[in-house]
Each structure stands twice: as C-alpha cells, then as structure tokens.
Amino acid sequence: MDINRIKSKLLLSTAVAVIAVTVPAAAQAQTAAQNSGQAGNPSAQQVEEVVVTGSSIRGVSPIGSNLITVNRDSIDKTSIQTVQQLLKTVPSITGMQSSGQGGYGSSDAAGTNAPTIHGLGGVSSNSTLVLIDGHRIPNSGIIRSLGDPNLIPTNAIERLEVLPDGSSSIYGSDAVAGVVNVITRHSFSGLELTGQKGFGDQYDTYSLGVIGGRAWNSGSVLFAYDYSNRSSLAVTARNFDRSNQIPRGGNNYGNFACSPATIQPTGSSLIYQYPYTAAGISNAQANAPCNQDSVTDLLPSEIRHAAMVKIQEQVTDRLTLSADAVYSIRNNRQGQPVGTITARIFGPGSNPAQINPFYVQPVGVNATSETVRFDPSNLLGTKSYISSSVESMYANVKAEYKLSDTWQITSFMMAGLATSRTMPIGALCNSCALLALNGTTNTNGVTTTPSIVGSTVTLLNTPLTSANALDPFNPAATNRTSPAVLAGLLATTGQFQQNRQELLQYNIKLDGTLLTLPAGDVKVAIGGEYVSTPSHATGVNNLNLGPTVASSVLNVNYPRNVRSAYGEILLPVISEDMNIPLVRRLDLNVSGRYDDYSDFGATANPKFAANWEIIEGLKVRGSIARSFVAPPVGTIGVNGQSLDTNFGASNLTFSVPLNRYPTARLIPGCAGATTTCTFGTTAIPGMQINGSNPDLKQQTGNTWSVGADYAPTFLGGLIASVTYWHNAFKNGVTSPAPQVALQSDGFASLLQIYPTGATPAQMAAFQGNRPQTTILQSPIYFSYDFRNQNALNLNAEGIDADIHYQTEFDWGSIGGGLATSFMTKFDEQVGTGGAVFSVLNRSGFNNTFPSVPLNVRTDLNVTYKQWSGTVYVNYSGPYTYWGANVINPVITTAAGIPTGGGDHVTSYTTVDLNVSYDLGEIISANTSLFVDVTNLFDRSPNFVSNYDANRGMGYDFFQASPIGRVVTVGFRAKL
Predict the structure, then answer these.
(1) N or C, fewer C-beta in 10 Å, the chain?
(2) 800 near 820, Cβ under 8 Å?
(3) Measured between alpha carbons, how far is 865 from 34 in angstroms, rounded to an integer?
(4) How much is the pTM?
(5) Residue 691: which residues within 8 A CB-CB, separation 6 or more?
C-alpha cells in the first residue's frame, strides 16, 4: 500500500470535508439572517479578516519596519500570469529584470522560483520566507526545499506584501532577509472572467481565468481558477544568444563534437571535419565549428493550472470559522542536447579486439588510433528534453473565538503537500557509446589501466564487430551502426527524481489588550506552534559506468518537526493627547520566538522595534532583530544520503598553494612547480564527494534598519518612505569553491593529498556509503570534499525608497512615482577566519546572488474618462561581471581573494506600457479591454561573456531577460 498516495488523498479529503461542512452552515446562517430581517444590510454582521505581515497582534501594522505593498489596482495594470512575474515589479527582490519564467533563485531541476530579498544568500542558502495569507506553504524542489508562491491563481490575489526585515521573532525559520506574503482576496461578489494572448518573436503566451463568489451578512465564499501557457524560447530564436560569441567581442563556447564526428589523429594537433578530405584545422577553442544551439531551449515551456476555494462564516457573535484550499500543477519542458561523446578509437595496426570496424581516417593520414568528438543527435533521430513538474496542494482550517471585546483565541491547522518531479528524456548513455566506440568505458580506451567502480572492476566489450560497434563517421542516411546499438544508446538512460514534501502546521494564539496606559492600549500576543515537514525523495540514476545494469535507485526519508513558542507586546509610550512637542506618538514593540528542531537543536530569536511619529504625517521608525534559516533537510540528508550525494572522479580544476600543502610537491605532476600546482588535470586526477552534510548548523542573520514615512496632510495623495537597512548573514550553506576554500583555515581539510596514489582502502573510506556516478582512473592523487558547508558569510547594507503621488480631476487622474533599492555595501567571507572582500556591484562570483547596487522602477499613470494608461521604466545600474568566462581575468591575491578585473556591463533599461479601456458605457457588463507591452523598445540584454547552455550565453540571466518585446491583448469582464 502506497502511504504517500494515501496522504495525498487525505489532503484533498480535508479540503473537500471543510467545504462540505462549512457551506451548509453558511447557508443556514444566511437563512437565519434573512428571517430576522438583516439580509438587507450585508455588512451588519460581517467579520472583516485582516491579515497583517510582520506582527502577531491583530490589526497592527509592523512596528519599525518598511512594508512594501503591491495592490490589486497595480496588478491589473500589468499582464502578469504568475506571482513570479509580479515579484519582478519590486526592486528590493533580486531579479527585477530577469525573464520571470522557469526556475529562479534555486538552481533546482524542478524549476522552483524562490524569491530573494536583497540578494542575501546563495543557491543553497535562500533567506527569504514565502507566506500565503500569513501561513507557510509546502516547499517544492528536488534537491532544495524552497517556498514557491506560484501555486496561487493570480486573479485570487488581493495584494503582495514584502517585508525586507529580519522576522524570525514572528515566523521562525527562513526570514533573515525578510518575508514575501501573498494576500488573497477576502471575499468576492459576482463573476469575473479574464483572458489574454501574448505575441513575441518566436514566443507566445495565453491565459484564462475565472473568479466567482458570493457574500452574505455573516460570511462569504470564493472560487478562483487560473490557466496559463507560455511557450519555450529556443537558443536559436535570439541572435545574441549563441555559443560563438566572438562576433560580439567574446569567446567561442562551441565544441568539436559534430555530426558526423570530427577526427584528430593520434600525434597530430589538427582536427578534420566530414568528409575528411579538406585540410585539418588547429585544435583551438576559437576554431570550434559545432555546438548544440539548435536543440537547446533557453526557457522551458510552462503550463500552469491553479485553483483556490475560500469560505468564511460567522457562526455566532463570538465564533468565526474559515477555510481555504489550493490546488496547483505546473509542467515544464526544456529542450537540451542529447549529449556528446569524446573518445579515442582504434584502427588497423592496434589492439585487434578494440579495432572499430567502421574506422575512418582523413585522406593522406595514416594513424592506428584517433580521437573522435561526436554529437549523435542526427543519428539517433530523437529530441532530448527535460520534463519537470510541481504539483502542490494545501487545505487550511481556521477558528477565531472572541473571549471578550478585546481578547481573542485564534487557531488554525494547515496541511499541504508538494510533489516535484524531473526526468531527462532521450539523453545519451555515455558509457554505452564508449563501449561501442573503443571497447572500454573510458575515453582513452586504455585496457591496462582499470576503470575503478568501488573496488577495481574492468568493464570491456570485446571484440568489436559490425554488430556491436558505433559508426560516428557517416551521416544518418548512410550510417552503418546496427539498430540494436542505436537503441541501446538511449534504452539505458532512464533517470527520474522526485521529492514529496509535506507540511503539517498547528498554530494557536491568544491576543488582546493587557492594560490601558495614558498613551493607549498595551496589546500582547502569545502562542505556540507545531510544524512537521517530512519529505520523501526518490532518485533513479544512470551511473554511466557500463551497460543497462549500471544504475542506482535511492530512497531517502527526511523527517523534521519543530515545536515553537512565541510572544509579542506593543507598548504605547506617548500619544497625541499628551501634547509633547515633536513627539506626536511613540510606540515600542518587542517580539520573540523559541524554536526547537528535531534534527539540529533549538534557537531563540528576539526583535525590538519602535515608531516615532514626529508630527502628523511624518514617522521615523527602526528595528533590530536576530533571525535564522534552518539548514534544508536535503542538504543535511539522512545517514549521509540525499539525491545529490555522490562520489566519483573530480571535475574541479584548481591551483593548490604549495606553502599550505607541501606534500603536493611529491606528486609527479607537480615536479618543477614553484608556488602553485594545478590539480584536476589529466596528469593529476582526483576524486570528490558531493551533496549532503549531517554536520550543518543553522544560518543566522543580525539585522537593523532605520527609516521614515511621510504622508503630508497639506498634500493629499503623496506618500514617501526611505529605509536604511543592514543585514549580516552568517554560516550560509553552500559548496565552497576550492580556490577560496583552500585559503581558509576552517576548510583546509577539504583537500587531502595522496603523493603516491590513493590506496583502495583510502578510496573506500572517502566514498563511504555514497553511490559512485563516474569512473575513476588510477592513480588518484587527491580527494576534495565538495559537500555543502556552513561557508558563506555576507554583510550587506543599502537603502530602499519609494515615493508616489496621485491627484484627482473632474476628467480623471494623474499619478506616478518611483521605487528603488540601492546597495551601499556587500562584503563576503568564505569560512571563519577567511579574508573579507567586497562583491558590491558584482555578479557571477562564487554561487552568490548578484549585488548590482541600483534597481529602479518608475511609473506614470493617466486616466481619462474610460481610458487608463500606465508607463513603467525599469532600470538596473552598471556592474562588473566576475564569472568564470570573463574576457578580462578577475585579479586575485596570492590567497585567491578577488580584488579587481572582470568585465564591465553597462546599465540596462526597459520600458513597459499598459493601456485599458472600460466598456461600461457601451455594454451593460463591467468589461474592459487592455493592451500590455513589456520591453516596449525590444531592448536586448547587454553583452556578458557568460556560458550556460540552458540559461543563457552572452548575457547575464540574473539581470536581463532574453524574451524581448511581448505584446499582450486581453479582457476583464465582471458579470
């Protein structure tokens, strides 16, 4: 019996049961109200639910913090289809100019979008908490456990609230950089239909939505459904995104893996292309003639379904019950190369058992062996792609009971489940191809050097014949490879990963007025919470160690539960009635929370905050807090196991300082080296482990902020705010790159050196119980522990500001404003005791998020009778790119600390336009038509010497979108 399937059904049953029980009660309450003569006044008894971000006390805005809000009116002035696109409108959230499609901030195969405030963290260390209506949601992701708010239908959103301030004293884990809270509509009367179609260059979108509801004197019910479909974007659809970036001043990231194969005779530096009669070309990267651009997608296609049901009923004068349920599924498909193969193959005059019967050599060349580089896509006649999906659901039941006019008990139970899946389809089995090319499972075809699989094992397929060999030399139409061999290249590549992440949350809170002081009511909230987040991960991986039997199956159950207690007090110190000069009002707030985790221990986090209203309309505020991020369960693992835990040949190339590692001088490949020796080359191969680390501890953050809000009484419609914030993020989880980690005393032991080669016992001890995923070639001279570590320390400061003004006229209105996020400091340190260096105004370094100092979004809106038009200008400032493929090398100290260099990237500005027309005077229905244009002037991304085949070549996918201009036409009709 599948216990996980039973749990899924129970979650759905919970939602159905809540609705089935509550709807009749609501109907009965409505009938009773009508019988008592109250039906004509629907607001007489209705309870207005208020969701507050950043406070546990009912109806109290967060004290001392900057709360950024995007309301429904602003949402309707865009063509967004997902919450991910909505988040792009907030400058303080990293990725304002990104594509808003596919995975972001997670580097996870399932394509999770994980919003990050102020870029605080790395791909394993997201420090932003995602909430919906103030409660947690089931996390998604294959390897990472991250909150993705995209499960909510966009037509159900009332507003988006972003609190860029440490908030673990209220919410617990993940809120170091702050909180993103999606507030859904409380009630909705009537029926509203929406639809839109978007047109771009080799790109299109469309979406449909419906929301309906009914409100009565004691409650309401609401249903929302949203469907969106966005096409993929191929690499070849954009002329700036190519493997060969030489015409733009960059490098050629192409390769010599062609179809048919290229040939490099042994002993020659020349490479020959089919039909192997022309002169060879030099083996230089700039001459690489081939690439896999034509089969690669920059962005995956994306199909989403999202539905939400909400219901509320005031059962008695004291008791209010409410419930909501959400179901969402997203399916992505992203084209990718089948795979390429590089191998040395053998012809007449070599080892007879290894002679490939289809051996071809260039005209005029006589060699008994050669290296071929081959792309079998055309030969296999198949498309390869990654299929991924996330299916999410939750049900939430809430009860509010008034003990008195000021005291209330609030309790809710929330159950959720997210199932993330990914599967590569049609990928090449490299080891199968090697066996069919040279009779071994190693690229060099060496039979005297064993291929190490755990203990020493040699995998050979001898002798090669026309029945079991692969012909890489001829086009598909004339190729001589047998159908059985071709089928085998794909038949053994079945891979599958799935992670089912559950959430069970119980919360009970008592809040109310403790006493009354001259300045006002002292309000308090105390409560307790229990959260269980077990997950079950399954992985089926082709190990590429041989034929069909070389695969592994891994099942890992990650248990975790948290018991918490929290409290908050709001203390009014001075009120307007006291007539104190320059202190119209002064409020203090203290909150704290204690969390006890089943897997890594307990933590306590306080927060102190204050609001000082100087005069009416001018308020100064400040806060100081300590927050934390629990290490994701997938990075801790269970008994050293997780889906990304593995052992194999090292794929890292790095310089080792000989003064710190003197035993490296004894390695033959380091003979003659003076200050450093390069590891990870063919002369100095090694092994590495990746993935989970049971020794991880919590990630912490110390934050403070000061700011001011101004809404002058003499100029209605003007609202302005400015906040200076500071955040010190410590012990962030990441895999430290060797070039930096080797300079840190805390991580020096990650590298172990075996001057005469590792013994089988040493290799077995290093491997532990981790599955081997690549073949090792003997001898092994080093091992590197590339697992997750508490390695990342960030110290950041900056300014968030917003100013908006709206004024009304007889004919309409004019309004506009500016929102900006400006960083003034962003220091990084890898490991305790490591050097501190600035990455402010940098992108692409050490797996951290970009720290571009200035992001601005301005808007200007004009309404005239039935017309409304809004122009948005999005600006990201210039920065320096410090990625791996820069044209101007990054300058580092002898200790590996970056000090300069890199490539300058100019500022990036795009313009969006939204125009709508209300048909209310033409037809009876409340209907509007709109045209929305994103990237009005079709601005291409700035050139960046960057290479990531699945996320962008020649531009920075964190900072710019490859989509270009998209024109969307749509309608909204409320019936």
Answers:
(1) N
(2) yes
(3) 39
(4) 0.89
(5) 637, 642, 643, 644, 645, 646, 770, 787, 788
The strand pair at 451-453 and 520-532 is best described as unpaired
| CB distance 574 to 583 below 8 Å | yes
Helix 483-491 vs helix 430-438: angle between axes, to the nearest 10 degrees? Answer: 150
The residue type of 333 is R
> How many other CB atoms sit within 10 Å of the CB of residue 761?
8
- CA–CA distance, 18 with 437 (Å, rounded to integer): 62
In whole angstroms, what is the distance from residue 812 CA to residue 865 CA? 6
pLDDT in tens, 310-345: 999 999 999 999 999 999 999 999 999 999 999 999
Please provide the average confidence, as pLDDT, over all residues in the chain: 88
Q: Residue 889 and residue 899: Cα distance in Å, rounded?
A: 11
Please say whether the beta carbons of 698 and 603 come within 8 A. yes
The answer to whether residues 626 and 700 touch, using CB atoms and an 8 Å cutoff, is: yes
Q: Is the pLDDT of residue 20 over 50?
A: no
What is the number of other CB atoms lying within 10 angstroms of the CB of residue 1?
4
812-830 and 789-808: which strand pairing?
Answer: antiparallel
For the chain, give the number of residues: 975
One-letter amino acid identity for 129? L
53 three-class SS: coil
The tens digit of pLDDT for each residue in 662-672 reads 999 999 999 88
Q: Which of 667, 660, 666 is nearest to 683 (CA)?
A: 667
Rounded CA separation 963/934 (Å): 10
Mean pLDDT computed over 869-878: 96
Q: Which residue has the tokens 């009923």?
A: 313
- Between CA 865 and CA 918 the distance in angstroms is 9
- Measured from the Cβ of residue 577, the count of other Cβ atoms closer than 10 Å reads 10
What mean pLDDT do residues 756-762 have?
93
Amino acid at 819: A
List alpha helices for 429-492, DSSP H: 430-438, 483-491
How many Cβ atoms from other residues are within 10 Å of residue 144's Cβ? Answer: 27
Q: Which residue has the higher pLDDT, 694 or 46?
A: 694
